[in-house]
Each structure stands twice: as C-alpha cells, then as structure tokens.
Design brief:
Elements: E1 2-8, H1 14-30, E2 34-40, H2 48-52, E3 56-59, H3 70-77, H4 87-94, H5 96-105, E4 113-116, E5 129-133, E6 143-145, H6 151-159, E7 165-169, E8 174-181, E9 184-185, E10 189-193, H7 200-204, E11 209-212, H8 219-235, E12 241-248, E13 254-260, H9 270-277, H10 282-294
Parallel strand pairs: 1-2, 1-3
Antiparallel strand pairs: 4-7, 5-6, 5-7, 8-9, 8-10, 8-12, 10-11, 12-13
Helix pairs in contact: 1-10, 3-4
Length: 295
Amino acid sequence: MKVAVIMGGSSAEKDVSIKTGEAVVKACLANGFEVYPIVFDDNYKDSFQLLKGVDIVFNGLHGTFGEDGAIQKWFEQNNILFTGSDSFSSQICMDKIKSKKIVGENNIRTPDWIETKKDMVVNPAFYPCIVKPNAQGSTFGLSFVKEPGLLENAINHSLAFDSNVLIEEYIGGREITVGVLDNEVLPIVEILPKHKLYDYECKYTPGMTNYKCPIELDNSLKEKINIDTIKIFELLGCRGYGRVDYIIDNNNHHYFLELNTLPGMTSTSLLPIAAESSGISFDDLIKKIIYLGLK
C-alpha cells in the first residue's frame, strides 16, 4: 500500500506536527507500507501528483489549515482519500465556541464562556477564568486569569494567535481525555501536569506531566463519560479517530472542553497511551487509522 504522510504546515504547531509525522512514517514502514513523507508550508499543491498517486494520505498536520477543514476540503474536491474527520467536522471541532454550543445544546456540561475580539469591552461574570484562542491547539495563547486586572494582557496574548478569543470559566478538578477509535472509546487518561495548567511546556517537556491510564474512577461516572464521548463524537460528525477532553470537578461532574480531531500521534502522545493500555501497539494504531480512512 502507498501512504503519503503530510506534516509541517505553517501553523504555530508546525514543530509538533513534524514529530507526529516522523513517528507515523516509522510506524508505516514497520507495517510494510510504501511511504512518502511530505513536509510543507503553504506549498501543498506542489505535491498534487504525488498525493493523487497514493492509496491514502495520513494527515499528520496540527493547527490551522491542517486541522480546521481547509486541507480536508481540498482533498475532498480532488478525490484524495485521507485519514481522520472530513472538512465539515474538522471545521466545527477546530472552532471551540461552535463545538461548545452544539455540545451544550445537547445537555452535556461545558464551562460557561464568552467570546471576544480585538477592542471589544468584556466583563466576565466568572473569575478565575481561562483565556485562549478560539481556533488553536497545543495550548498556544493560553492564560489562567485570577482577577480582572490581568484580563487585558491575557486577551492580547491570545489575539496573537487568533482574531477570536474564548474566555472560559475555570473549573478546578481532574483533567482527563478520552480517545475514540472506530467509534469506540479507549481507556480514560488522567493528565497530571506540574503547572497549574496543562500548558505547552507541560505537554512537550519530558517529566513535566504524569499520565495515569487506566484511572481510578467511579464506574457509573466512567460509563457516563464514555457514553457522552461517543455522543459528542457523533454530534460533531467525526470519523475514524479523535480525542475528547474533559474536566471532572469536585462534585464528580464532567465538563466538555474540546474535541481534537487530529491528536498528537507520537508514541508518548495521549491517544497512543490510551491505545497501548487497551493492548493496541503504536504501529497497530497507525495501521488501524489508515484502514479506517480507506472505508
């Protein structure tokens, strides 16, 4: 089988994407596939003939363009098979506010929020709060704001990454993530960062975060989370694989944060950790994702 692995891109997550791509390439080789690694910035159309000549494209991009439906739409228009969710679902999930609205309207808890843009005056009714770009990943532009005097700087920091900013109620508790593979949930992973927030440094610096999988959790709560995860995955129109992030508060209520349609795919990333816990090796996980994309 011929597999092109695209990585890089021009978003703030370029370096993370290259790490994903390199790990996927190794797994494809281990599976005996004929692999074509492609690293690009905005020049993806230069690879058109190569992409048309493979059986499938493994989308190893992260962030804007790769994850927001843009590249997916181009693939669809050119009848190129690719892994992960389609353009419509990708666009919805990349838009945190849009996805939170859909989930909230379907009776699943999500932290309160308000949206703001440049030069808008906002007065959140909740402190502390989280300020983050609406359409960005890897916690770029993320801030924890304790009091009103710190809000403006946090908003400006987020505006460096996106024109729309999400100000979200901070809910203290356990941060968890639930992987989905072929419309089935993987074991829940608990994230235990050294910092107050699971920020960029904690995500990508060895030793800055501990992960538990599987975790100790009341069976009824675990069942609710798993049911809601599949419900959210289907509500947002996702396919193949993805990862849903939550906070569990001190009253054992879980709150939806976001759905990541192209989660990191190195052997130490969260989705592979969950897969490994269920007996799926990294190489087998990549093979499964590719065959799901061929359906």
